[in-house]
Amino acid sequence: MKVIHVSVECYPVAKVGGLADVVGALPKYQRKLGIDASVVMPWYNKPYVQSHQFEKIAEGGFYQGSQYLTYTVFLHDEANLGFPLYLIKIPGLLDRPEVYEYEDESDQWIAFQHAFLHWIVNSNVRPDVINCHDHHTGLIPFFLKYGNDFRELSTIKTLFTIHNGRYQGWMNWNKGILLPAFDTWRWGLMDWSGAINSLSSAVRCCDAYSTVSEGYLGELTEEATGLENLFISEAYKAHGIVNGIDTDLWDPAIDPLISANYNKVNVVKGKKVNKDIFCDKNGLEKNAFLLTYIGRFAYEKGADILSLFIDDFYTASDHKLNIFILGSGDVEIQQKIERVYEKYKPKVAVFFGYNEALAHEAYAASDFILMPSRVEPCGLNQLYALKYGTIPIVRAIGGLKDTVVDIDQDGGYGFVFQDFNEESVSHTIIRALDYSSKQVNMNRIRKRAMSLDFSWDKSAKKYIDLYNQLLK
Q: According to the lineage, what is the superkingdom (predicted)?
């Protein structure tokens, strides 16, 4: 079976969020299971691209509106990725240093999808399944079926994977002139409330769609930024498959980015070594529990509650706790975090931005990781944390609800709260500190966490099973 994953992010080439981690791992694990899986993404002027070799394998061109665009397809088949990677370069559109934040973003993604389909139809590449990821690739299922130039591709099956349904690829219909020629009787399959909506089009036109956890699949029928009825009506082709983690990259026993490797047998000693070094580096006290937040400063991640709960916690509690924050995003949220950092240092340390090595160090050093999300389709941070014996403190939402079991339940290994407010966060952190103050409890819960299997092995097989269903 030949499967092509189409995405605008893929680790290690270009990463903004969890989408990159998934697309950079899932095809690798599928190939281990005998599937011919590869990835197609835009070309970015980033360090990975600059420092590696790529083979030019195809060229072509097409009109986007009145502008003639030329594209080049490059192949990168290095063994360290574990899968063939194809990059599509279009001068002026798909050759930029960043993934997002451009005013003509919709033009970029239209061009990317058109170039992909133009290359496929004019080559001998014929996948059995195209797995499209998020709205940036959401028009591909429509054009496979109704694009005038792509009719010979109409038998290819499509799976559309939703990593975050809040971002839907809205475009005014004045962008319609940029689209490849299509059967105009079918225009309504791209329309939602008088505008082009790439995500809604994908859900209606794909052969099946999936979300990155079962919990998030159910939540989309209740809150999906206006698409709730769509997800209810199309539920017959919906599947929830929880994300996994790439244990080649995320395993404290072999991780080259942490100070001392360890496993569940010597986790107590290993985490102490990492914690001591980490605290020295970041000006934190070694003999206090360490709680970490890693992620975007975004409303959906609940990052706006960080400054509130820090004030609430240190005002009301005498527990010894250090807090480390690694992230970037909303300027106002960052300014508030800066203020509590100045107020409570050296109990609080921050790093504004993203640093992959520092994230690994933080997982290895921390006792707890906090994820107070308003929306969390799956979440990977809690899975990384569990692998490193770092206990998750999470809100019961989406994939967090699916993957973290509260300590008060049988077999529990985390701390879960329901309400989104600083009091709930502080109360749950205090509950975690009280429980973990007994070393025997902390040792037990760490080993239980590290014994869990959230690798991609099981989830990759579920994707393959779904592909086989489509092909039957």
A: Bacteria
Q: Map out the domains of the chain with their CATH numbers.
A: 2-244+457-471 (3.40.50.2000), 267-453 (3.40.50.2000)
Is 447 annotated for ligand binding? no
| Sequential pLDDT tens for the chain (472 residues) | 999 999 999 999 999 889 999 999 999 999 999 999 999 999 999 999 999 999 999 999 999 999 999 999 999 988 889 999 999 999 999 999 999 989 999 999 999 999 999 999 999 899 999 999 999 999 999 999 999 999 999 999 999 999 999 999 999 999 999 999 999 999 999 999 999 999 999 999 999 999 999 999 999 999 999 999 999 999 999 999 999 999 999 999 999 999 999 999 999 999 999 999 999 999 999 999 999 999 999 999 999 999 999 998 998 888 899 999 999 999 999 999 999 999 999 999 999 998 999 999 999 999 999 999 999 999 999 999 999 999 999 999 999 999 999 999 999 999 999 999 989 999 999 999 999 999 999 999 999 999 999 999 999 999 999 999 999 8
Cβ distance 31 to 43 under 8 Å? Answer: no
CA angle 382, 386, 388 (to 5 degrees): 120
Residue 274 has a CB neighbour count (10 Å cut-off) of 25
**62-63-69 Cα angle (round to 5):** 65
Give the strands of the sheet with 391-395, arranged side by side: 348-352, 321-329, 289-297, 368-371, 391-395, 415-417
Half-sphere exposure of residue 392, counting CA atoms within 13 Å on the CB side?
33
